[in-house]
């Protein structure tokens, strides 16, 4: 299913496959925000996330003909980015990345509320970084990207009970971090 | 074993209404939901930079077959030397002698369940070339290739435990060079493109 506006994903894919390269810009604009957010949460670095998402879009374009269900383009793109993030994580530990590199809050006004929010975000990011990549991936897909367990299964290739278990473990770890902080 | 009340998961998974659980559990649900909301804040990226970068890449014309063939010829590739137990002892001796000739450290001695991988790449402008992979935890700097005759062709012979490994070259300490045209790649839904080397044990 496409998101936000027209034309639907399947139609855009058909245009690109028919030779309209520029139509791929629609795909990028439609999904880059979510994919960048997902990759940033997975990798802990905006620069690494931008690289991973850019590489993924290029690969998606080059292999677009192999997207068997263009109407489910979103899931397919998340799958490519997920694999690309895992490939990045193989090469370096997310723990090596300074959290300063993580995205700043949108409302960075120097107010007490904003500072509290920033502290809390840093705490949550640290707890997220301490999770194994599998649990981090499951939590971010479920609670940050809002995917259903069925969509997560399509993205990761894992069984739904496995994904549920990972999400549960991630929630437990995050809740413990929040309670310790309180 | 879950360390929190399973009803918290049920609420977050939409299997149970929030008002069906006690208030202390609802607080945990709200905390987790708030944490997720914080993480869902859009990262700050330069506007339009990613789209222009991707579009510039995909607008580039695909190289002709002849050009791709030329690239294939000059792209660094790994040459895998497999030593099978069924081969003669004489051949193993030749391999050992060749390795001795190309390595500074007097040549590798193969233990049981070890084999030899030879990495060769052409990098005419490089000051240094290393190979990284699953055999050295992707640590740059631990296995250097050498270009003793300064012809731009870099080589390293490595003794590894028998197994299958992914690898890349690191040129001048910062440029990671995947072997896109290698015959053996890990093709996992387009997420990986590392070369693959299979090392077989010289002796079993």
What's the CATH superfamily of the largest domain in chain A, by name? RNA polymerase sigma factor, region 2, helix turn helix motif
Helix content class of chain A? 55-70%
Provide the helix percentage of chain B.
25-40%
Oligomer: heterodimer
The Cα radius of gyration of chain A reads 17 Å
- CATH architecture assignment of the largest domain in chain A: Orthogonal Bundle
List unreliable stretches of 5+ residues of chain A.
Answer: 97-109
CATH class (first level) name of the largest domain in chain A: Mainly Alpha
Shape estimate of chain B: elongated
Count of distinct structural domains of chain A: 2
The fraction of residues in strands of chain A falls at under 5%
CATH architecture of the largest domain in chain B: Sandwich
Q: Quick one: biggest sheet of chain B?
A: 5 strands, antiparallel
Distance N to C terminus of chain B: 43 Å
Number of strands of chain B: 8
Quick gist of this model?
The complex is a heterodimer of chains A (182) and B (204). Chain A has 182 residues and is mainly alpha-helical.
Describe what this molecule looks like in 3D:
The complex is a heterodimer of chains A (182) and B (204). With 182 residues, chain A is mostly helical. Chain A has two domains: 1-94, RNA polymerase sigma factor, region 2, helix turn helix motif (Rna Polymerase Sigma Factor, Chain: A), CATH 1.10.1740.10; 104-182, Orthogonal Bundle (Arc Repressor Mutant, subunit A). Chain A has helices at 9-17, 24-43, 46-62, 73-91, 112-130, 133-144, 149-156, 160-181. Chain A is globular. The model of chain A is unreliable at 97-109 (pLDDT under 50). Chain B has two domains: 6-39, no CATH class; 74-199, Immunoglobulins (Immunoglobulin-like), CATH 2.60.40.10. In chain B, 29% of the residues lie in helices and 22% in strands. In chain B, the strands form two sheets. In chain B, strands 3, 4, 6, 7 and 8 form a five-stranded antiparallel β-sheet that branches. The model of chain B is unreliable at 188-192 (pLDDT under 50). The chains are: A mainly alpha (182), B alpha+beta (204).
